Amino acid sequence: MRRIVALLSVLLLLFVAACSSDSSSKNTDGPWEPKKAIEIVAPAGAGGGWDTTARMTAKIFEEEKIIEQSIGVVNKPGGGGAVAWAYIHGKKDSPYNLFVTSPPMLLVPLNGQSEYDFEDFTPIANLIADYAAIAVRADAKWDNLNELFEDMKKDPSSISVVGASSPGSMDHIQFIKVAKAAGVDVKKIKYVSDQDGGALTQLLNGSVQVYSTGVAETVEQVKGGKIKVLGVTSEERLQGEVLEDFPTAKEQGIDATFINWRGFFGPPDMDQASLDYYVKKFKGLSESDGWAKIREQYGWNEMFMDSEEYKEFLAKENESMKTLLDELGIGK
């Protein structure tokens, strides 16, 4: 009988030890490290700002050995980002599925094209500030923003503006913000959405007269003598070859800027340990020499915000965007 009791005592101790070990392995209070490959989703096709940011981020993480695990970039285009957001939302609390985002994360839900908004995900860190460019064909009659907007004040609908985003999203709103500051009746502006990669082609073949896009998307075309940039939305002139030649809207007397902030989110309900891990790694990326070269290459400015700073910034930006959309009558 004593042997049986002793045996049961030993089994009980082993059971308790096993439970304790299992519990400690699930403890999320301590440091977290990824145990498998990480996926970064670009909510659009190849070649755009989201795709470039995601791929350059993965590249520098690997080259600088900031993250040891492999990182894959996956493109999930559609709905101005909504398709990717729905996909990530289904990865609830996963620390292995991240996505890059920017102002459409606010604009698309605000104009009713996505059921998910920024509050449905976990903000990790913002990395950069990119800016908008307003461009025309090289042989266009306008040489600056004021000349363009003087014609638009007379008849806004006579001049078509093309962008790669949906109506009410970034390429549309960045142009609207500058045009409004210049005194144009923004409700009458004719905006053409081309989300299939043909926006530049429409400008070059004369289907439209103005191209609203990101600064980086204009550099090679300017070098090739195909387009000219009438203005950019940064506070001051950008640095770098070609970029330094682009005048700002502000220096042309138009009191408007537009920041295309770009950063990374995770699925809803990421635990604090994995969030802390990624905040630290993205800060390391932002401070690395490799990332400094990438910023210079694409004309991006440093704009790092950790998770808490990012949340506060997003809430303020969301209110500002909502006001603009309401004025256009396209808010939900």
TrEMBL record:
Which CDD domains does the UniProt entry name for this protein? PBP2_Bug_TTT
The record's section on InterPro entries has: BUG (IPR005064), Bug_dom1 (IPR042100)
The residue range of the signal peptide is: 1-20
Record keywords:
Signal
Supply the Pfam families for this chain: TctC
PANTHER family documented for this protein: TRICARBOXYLATE-BINDING PROTEIN, UPF0065 PROTEIN YFLP
| Assigned protein family | Belongs to the UPF0065 (bug) family.
* Name of this protein: Tripartite tricarboxylate transporter substrate binding protein
Q: Which organism is it from?
A: Fredinandcohnia quinoae
Q: What is the lineage of its organism?
A: Bacteria, Bacillati, Bacillota, Bacilli, Bacillales
